[in-house]
């Protein structure tokens, strides 16, 4: 079990309130991702759940019981830190066994669990090495191993992939997702990378300045962002925002069009512009289009084989059924 | 870019420093070795010729030799123990956020700036004096008989004085080590269910091990040769005569340069035995 409920939780550091009253429920077995720009309070929120920070007011419940003042070790949660926080003087085996030793578990049981975790995470070959002799990805796996041996009711990940290079990050992303599928344990994952959020989450919580902007599944957030912030944050490349006369035609203050929802043509279309930079990725091409009279630049995602060059005139047509409309407060018009 | 030319230029430029250092070390060492094989009594006939290993035999067979070795090692060991235990505790304390941290840290370092002679005098007259010392007053306040520190507990008194001088050094090095510990490691240990004492034992102390070895190494080098503290306080009486002090007495009080030099050679051997042991431990600790 691992159902975590936050009830009007707040956190202040001195005079500054970093988390205004916040309610959130994370269901058992759910993979929840907290995403937001840096400084939005997502890590603080995770540390509140972990118990590494004290809540200023409000209540945190784990499986229905009040855990607000329970010390971190007694909450039944395991955390994977951004720096991995491995104990450098201990071998991989001792690192993984550490929480079990602290729990005064039987030696044979410790052996069994450590071996189990090591084989699940492909660590058996390095088990006698020290963390200093491991690569970034291996260290990451040790940190996860140290978390899973405790068989916690929920895992907390604090930006665990941000210290890895791009290729390894994709691999570890998959491994963590697979681990979640296999263990079916609640996981809370903090990241500033919306791609990680979209690919891994069952439920995404978008945060800004301590406020929850929107909660929903990745596709819900993609299809129906509640406001301009979420619309701009979820999706890559970023959504194009157009205001003024063109938005007025749709009875909105601002309209948002995703780059992938615009069709391009050489000869005809609703908007006319000039191609600035064309980024060829092979599978796709991103065009940055200027002089449309709508916005500074309009980004368009086209097929990889579409050949426009710098300075070419281009015609754009947004797909009307997927245009997002927002009022002057930046909120979505249904 | 190390061409033949630049390499010889480098050698030439380093030469003065190397020659100076070599001379500084080799000349006294050779002279000590030379004198140790001679009967050399400056006030009683001067150089009386070669005597082989006589001085060495006499120095070791003297009743003062073994007690002096024991006293030396006791002082070194005692000071190391006190400075490291208290140093670790003080470092942990000073690492806590508190009001006036900067001033407190400077105050803690202050004893290190006091000259050994001065600090020994201060301790001898202001604290340990059996009539007017602060300790005597303290003892009397509680109705106890004041301790005559320097005669009844001379070795302990010297250990106390020297520890007071070296505690700041240990604290300073250990404090920087404590500060370099990644706070996420402590948080991870906290989440792993380690209470404060176990976090100290399993995370902080291993992290400090390298700094502790450095402190042990550096302090040992200096503690083997402490002199001023003994000279000012007990003059080597009441069992506080260290090897260094014994050599001083042989050379200057008995005016027997040959015998003292032989003692000096023994001191070098003792220092090297200690150094080999330390290097073994340090090497093991600094490797990983």
Reported CATH architecture of the largest domain in chain A: 3-Layer(aba) Sandwich
> How confident overall, as mean pLDDT of chain B?
87
Briefly note the CATH topology name of the largest domain in chain A: Rossmann fold
How would a textbook summarize the main sheet of chain B? 2 strands, antiparallel
CATH topology of chain B: MetI-like fold
Count of DSSP strands of chain A: 18
Kindly name the structural category of chain A. Answer: alpha+beta
The amount of helix of chain A comes to 25-40%
Note the total helix count of chain B.
Answer: 13
Count the domains of chain B. 1
Number of helices of chain A: 9
- How do the SSEs of chain A run, as a string of H and E? EEEHEEEHHHEHEHEEHHEHEEEEEEE
The largest chain-to-chain contact, stated as pair and per-chain residue counts, equals: A-B, 25 and 19 residues
Order of strands across the main sheet of chain A: 6-7-8-3-9-10
Radius of gyration of chain B, in Å, reads 24 Å
């Amino acid at each position: 079990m691992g159902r975590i409920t936050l009830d009007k939780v707040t956190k202040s550091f001195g005079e500054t309130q970093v988390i205004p009253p916040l309610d959130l429920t994370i269901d058992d077995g759910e993979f929840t991702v907290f995403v937001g720009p840096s400084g939005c309070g997502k890590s603080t929120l995770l540390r509140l759940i972990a118990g590494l920070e004290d809540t200023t007011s409000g209540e945190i419940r784990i499986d229905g019981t009040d855990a607000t003042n329970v010390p971190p070790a007694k909450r039944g949660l395991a955390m994977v830190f951004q720096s991995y926080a491995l104990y450098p003087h201990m071998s991989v085996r001792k690192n993984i066994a550490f929480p079990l030793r602290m729990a005064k578990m039987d030696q044979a049981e410790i052996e069994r669990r450590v071996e189990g975790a090591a084989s699940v995470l492909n660590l058996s070959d390095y088990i006698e090495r020290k963390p200093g002799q491991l690569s970034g990805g291996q260290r990451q796996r040790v940190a996860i191993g140290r978390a899973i041996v405790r068989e916690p009711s929920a895992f907390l990940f604090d930006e665990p992939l941000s210290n890895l290079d791009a290729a390894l990050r994709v691999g570890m992303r998959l491994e963590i997702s697979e681990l979640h599928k296999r263990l079916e344990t609640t996981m809370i994952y903090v990241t500033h990378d919306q791609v990680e959020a979209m690919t891994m989450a069952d439920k995404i919580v978008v945060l800004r300045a301590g406020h929850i902007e929107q909660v929903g599944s990745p596709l819900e957030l993609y299809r129906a962002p509640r406001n301009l912030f979420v619309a701009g944050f979820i999706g890559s490349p970023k959504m194009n925002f157009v205001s003024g006369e063109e938005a007025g035609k749709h009875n909105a203050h601002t309209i948002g069009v995703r780059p992938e929802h615009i069709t391009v043509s050489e000869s005809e279309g609703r908007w006319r512009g000039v191609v600035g930079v064309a980024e060829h990725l092979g599978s796709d091409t991103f065009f940055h289009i200027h002089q449309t009279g709508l916005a500074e630049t309009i980004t368009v995602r086209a097929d990889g084989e579409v050949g426009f060059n710098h300075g070419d005139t281009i015609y754009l047509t947004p797909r009307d059924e997927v245009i997002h409309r927002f009022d002057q407060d930046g909120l979505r018009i249904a | 870019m190390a061409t033949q030319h630049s390499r010889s230029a480098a050698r030439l430029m380093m030469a003065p420093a190397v020659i100076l250092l070599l001379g500084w070390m080799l000349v006294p060492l050779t002279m000590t070795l030379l004198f140790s094989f001679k009967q050399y009594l400056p006030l009683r006939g001067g150089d009386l010729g070669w005597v082989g290993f006589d001085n060495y035999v006499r120095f070791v067979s003297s009743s003062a030799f073994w007690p002096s070795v024991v006293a030396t090692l006791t002082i070194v060991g005692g000071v190391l123990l006190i400075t490291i235990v208290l140093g670790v505790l003080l470092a942990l304390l000073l690492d806590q956020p508190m009001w006036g941290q900067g001033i407190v840290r400077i105050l803690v370092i202050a004893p290190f700036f006091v000259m050994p002679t001065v600090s020994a005098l201060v301790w001898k007259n202001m604290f340990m004096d059996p009539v007017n010392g602060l300790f005597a007053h303290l003892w009397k306040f509680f109705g106890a008989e004041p301790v005559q520190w320097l005669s009844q507990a001379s070795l302990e008194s010297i250990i106390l004085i020297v520890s007071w001088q070296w505690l700041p050094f240990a604290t300073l090095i250990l404090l920087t080590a404590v500060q370099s510990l990644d706070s996420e490691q402590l948080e991870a240990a906290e989440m792993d269910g380690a209470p404060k004492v176990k976090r100290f034992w399993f995370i902080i102390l291993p992290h400090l091990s390298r700094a502790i070895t450095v402190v042990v190494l550096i302090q040992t080098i200096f503690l083997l040769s402490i002199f001023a503290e003994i000279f000012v306080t007990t003059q080597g009486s009441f069992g506080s005569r260290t090897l260094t002090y014994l050599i001083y007495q042989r050379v200057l009080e008995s005016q027997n340069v040959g015998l003292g030099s032989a003692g000096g050679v023994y001191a070098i051997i003792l220092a090297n035995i200690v150094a080999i042991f330390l290097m073994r431990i340090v090497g093991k600790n600094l490797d990983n």
